[in-house]
Amino acid sequence: MKLVVLHGQQHHGSTWNTTQLLLKELVTNQDSLSEFYVNDIPYCIGCYTCILKEEENCPHRKVTKEIIHSIEQADVIIIDSPNYCMGMTGQLKTFFDHMAYRWFSHRPLGNMQHKIGIAIATTAGMGAKSATKQIKKQLFWWGIPRIFCINAVVAAANWNDVKPKTKDKLLLKTKKIAKKIKRKHGHVKRGIRQKIIFKLMGNMQRAGLGTPKDASYWKEQGWI
Ligand SMILES: Cc1cc2nc3c(=O)[nH]c(=O)nc-3n(C[C@H](O)[C@H](O)[C@H](O)COP(=O)(O)O)c2cc1C
Fold it and tell me: CB–CB of 150/173 below 8 Å?
């Protein structure tokens, strides 16, 4: 199994540690794992190069290329973020903006339909669910059919202050999810909602309502 982890923050706090709990349960010697941080990615400048012309010419491609390549190769994509003001971190959203061209409405990658996604967020009190929901939405629109969420209320500003009982609960949760991921690996497929979206987007490309770059991509894939 190939796994990629994208950390929505650079520091090793409660969120990073929660992800490590999951990795300990999930990753074996036979698996390959790549981990990335998104903090050094500049903001999307809205030049539309990726959508209208060529993603390789994005002015930030040097920084994003390896991350995107690993995501495209992986079987399991894990993305984490602390809850900041009821959502994901700004730096993670910045990464997602660089993936707009991979949405269903543009040039989705066909092999996304075989991948599993995991969204992880921790929060002091409220909002972990809002953060994982935002991450899940991005993965859904890339075409990933099965996305697990781990939302953790840690009642702390850092991992050292998280109570042992809370850590035990988190360990149980990550064990459960790891088991499910192992069971589902290689057996996921698009649900009805993604099937409908894919069909509608295909109709849109056929009718010439998308960009010429996107339409030729859909033709190349043999989808229209
Ligand atoms: C900028 C910022 C915004 C935050 N917003 C919220 C919030 O809206 N609700 C909440 O309960 N905790 C909030 N927190 C607390 C963090 O979500 C919480 O401590 C989280 O577990 C931190 O994870 P980390 O240790 O991985 O950074 C915020 C923290 C920061 C730094």
Answer: yes
